[in-house]
Amino acid sequence: MSPTPELPPLTIRLAAPRGFCAGVDRAIKIVEMALEKWGAPVYVRHEIVHNRYVVDGLREKGAVFVEELDECPDDRPVVFSAHGVPKSVPEAASARQMLFVDATCPLVSKVHIEAERHAAKGLQIVMIGHAGHPETVGTMGQLPEGEVLLVETVADVATLAPRDPERLAYVTQTTLSLDDTAEIAAALKAKFPAIQGPHKEDICYATTNRQEAVKAMAPQIEALLVIGAPNSSNSKRLVEVGKKSGCAYSQLVQRAADIDWRAIAGITSVGVTAGASAPEVLVEEVIDAFRARHTVTVELVETAVERVEFKPPRILRQPTGDAA
After folding, report:
1. Which residues carry out catalysis?
2. pTM of whole model > 0.85?
């Protein structure tokens, strides 16, 4: 298909880094390795990562996605998603003598450990996060009910009533906007001066890097397309960052078929990025869709180089029959 003659040439500014982060890469590998080691079906509690294309691909290989553990048989392996799970989930799996593999991103696990460390000192935890998001549910579920208070906005901080304002610590969901989180953290520190924060920012390196790339490209583009799922927190934050950084038309698309061509007719520059759960094949699909309409020049906007890699759990790296 040749470019449409009446449409102007188009510069695509392609964000780098974009797409899969090390935690997502590891989680997908865990399901694939579990299928190789134990055969199908392997059960997965919740979407392993928030991307329909990825989930459908794993389903075709023999993964069965369920919402809760009670939908899994006792005699098949189960994988817990990259977002993390409340403590009650592995405890229930152990009680049923199930074989389970935890694909929780190591950076999420770090927040779990942080929360437990603070609680061991008798501090009540405040979590900056989104209600109902699997990661927030998992982190809050590391401690008994009432030990973790959730705040989603600066306004929530104003009504927060901890049991002891002098004995507080806060943690954050790893996929939030750095700027929004900084605002909420500042409000917490203003209201509760004794509150303890993380030693190092909880927002994960990949979330930060993808947001910085969008900030760098936003002033140079007329439209921004973020490839990601509607339930992907980090992808939705990229859309918000694009808008706040000066690109009024910032939209989330799951794949090329979702692009609203009428809304961007006549533009000469577009930014393309992908959330941490979106595979590169979907980025290529979007670029190809633009090439079918425009004469396209692709320019890379690179703000960081990522070399992080997380190993899969030992149980998957050992031959079948070895002890875990």
Report:
1. 135
2. yes
